[in-house]
Amino acid sequence: MATSAPVDMTLQADERYEIAVSYGTIIGTGAFAIVVCSTKLYIRKFMLNSFGIDDWACLIGLLFVTTFNGIGLAVVYYGAGKHIEHVTPDELKHWFMLYYVCICLYLSISFAVKSSILLFLRRVFPVPYVQYTTMGLLIFFTLFTISGTFLAAFQCNPPKYTYDIVFLMSPDRSKFCFPAMTSYAVFMYQAVLIFCCDIIMFLLPFPALMSVQLNSRKSLALLAVFGSGVVACIAPAIRFKSLNFYKTGSTDTTFEGASSLYWMAIEYNMGLVAGSLPALRPLFSRLGVFGSSNDPSSGNPNQFSPSYQLDDQNSKQWGTGRRTQGSKNRFQGDSVLEATVIDRDNSSRDSEDARIMKTEVFTVTSEARDANSRGNQQAWGQFE
């Protein structure tokens, strides 16, 4: 009786490369996201004493993304990056189940990350076009996540034909699952929409930032911080190519699916980083990245004070209500000119030894009594 020759389980160079990249990107970007987000949350809670809904969203997003990173590492452990003939049946059993979980969680975790960014933009940019756009995107992502997750979970009906290795190898599987081209079209459609929304979110703050009168050094620094989101935009675009194995119907899913996995991790982790970097403004200021508000070269010494006033074209003050620490009378959005991206004001000098940042800002209101006054309002005015 003939017996089949044993399979050589020695990993090839391309397998070792994919495994190393998978581990490196998931662990590296995951650790970076934890450090940046934790620092942001510490600054917001303990230095600024201003922990808002976007900070809670960031915390939830970080928990979701860290969970995904853990699942992703397990997917790599059980065979991602290896050619399928080098994966044992027991490993395949776990791999298909975990990869199915990743696919089902993809849009939900993406929604958590993007919600934290959108809520952050709503807080720091109390400008009508930002408020309307972010609200529209939040509604869109909610509906998109629900519908897209349903499609991913039920690309086979019943779903066990997606993740159970016994049913995956069933000869009648095609009767219960989408054709390969349909699955490819669904996931490509999702990736393209997410990429387009990422571009919108990336560009959204720039008109407002460009209209603020700052010296070139601080303008470039702020633009660089907000522009860090370009990395999060690149990830879903590169994922386009990693989805090709759905179109070709490749059976080497453990190897072909590895790049899609780690680009998902890059997208999530760098998305959180991009949404958190602007909140590290006080830390950057201490390190001199943005310069000091007392630096003669920075122009007006109060130029970066959190105590500011936004004027319309008729030099009418937008708001006169003071907000002190702990006050509940707070506009939906602290301006981008507040302490998240601005130096401390003079009132914080008396607490330098305690390293406490006190802020006094004007509450910004955009109420208009008539159409003319609404038309005359500017998103950003000069600093006091």
Automatic annotation (TrEMBL):
Keywords: Membrane, Transmembrane, Transmembrane helix. The chain crosses the membrane at residues 20-43, 55-78, 98-121, 133-154, 187-208, 220-240. Its main location: membrane. Residues 40-286 form the Rhodopsin domain. InterPro entries: Rhodopsin_dom_fungi, SAT4-like. Residues 303-332 have a biased composition (Polar residues). Residues 294-337 are annotated as: Disordered. The keyword Membrane applies. It is a multi-pass membrane protein. GO terms for cellular component: membrane. It comes from the Eukaryota. It is found in: Membrane. Belongs to the SAT4 family. This is Rhodopsin domain-containing protein. It comes from Hypocrea virens (strain Gv29-8 / FGSC 10586).
